[in-house]
Amino acid sequence: MPTQTIYTLIKQLFTKKATNPFPVKYTPENMHDAAELIEKDELEINPPVDVPPNFRGKLKYDIESCIGCQLCVKVCPSQALVFKEDNTVRHYVNRCTFCGQCVDICPTDSFEFTDEFLMAGPEKLYEDLVLNP
Ligand code: SF4
Ligand code: SF4
User: Fold this and answer.
1) More confident residue, 44 or 123
2) What is the domain range of residue 62?
3) Distance 109 CA to ligand 1 centre (A)
4) Considering only CA atoms, which residue is closest to atom 8 of ligand 1?
5) Are residue 36 and residue 60 in the same domain, yes or no?
6) Alpha-carbon torsion 96, 99, 103, 104, what sign?
7) Is the pLDDT of residue 122 over 70?
8) Mean pLDDT of the 80-96 span
9) Ligand 2 pocket, 80 CB below 6 A?
10) Residue to mutate, 74, 75, 79, 96, ligand 1, most ligand atoms under 8 Å from C-beta
11) Is 65 found in the same domain as 40?
12) What are residue 59's DSSP bridge partners?
């Protein structure tokens, strides 16, 4: 058993890491200050590792192809989708569980997952987190 543990530890020393330090390469003294510097383009974000195929990142909504059938609204388990009076859909990203049901059921492929996973914002209703507000 100890042999297996030692083997695993040694193997991990030479295995490519699945994660990396984020948002910057080295832990800053103050994360708030670092975030402000990043916003001013004075500090570079450590590029995240690549996402795997079929990654469920932030959804993309194609308003042009949407026919307003509301199927996505009906299947969404977290009330992240709200039907609007103009026959389109509003998507609250911060309520989304990324289950993919809206993507699967949409007859016009108006919803698709992207590779984007950086979705933190300064406020609860950060406007980037509402698609088609
Ligand atoms: S991925 Fe799931 S939770 Fe998110 S909007 Fe679509 S159906 Fe709702
Ligand atoms: S299922 Fe597709 S076409 Fe229907 S309302 Fe939702 S996004 Fe639009």
Assistant:
1) 44
2) 50-133
3) 14
4) 76
5) no
6) negative
7) no
8) 93
9) no
10) 96
11) no
12) 113
Give the DSSP letter string of 11-66.
HHHTSPPS----SSSS--S-HHHHHHHHHTTSSPPPPPPPPPTT---SEEE-TTT-
Residue nearest to atom 1 of ligand 2 (CA): 106
| 128 confidence band (pLDDT: 50, 70, 90) | low
Question: What residues have CB less than 8 Å from 17, skipping those under 6 apart?
Answer: 49
Which residue has a Cα nearest atom 2 of ligand 1?
99
CATH number, domain with residue 82: 3.30.70.3270
Residue 37 has pLDDT above 70, yes or no: yes
Closest approach atom of ligand 2 to CA 87: 5
Asked if 96 and 78 count as a contact pair (C-beta separation under 8 A), the reply is yes
Q: How far is the CA of 117 from the centre of ligand 2 (A)?
A: 23
Mean pLDDT on 109-128: 80
Residue 69 near ligand 2, beta carbon < 6 Å: yes
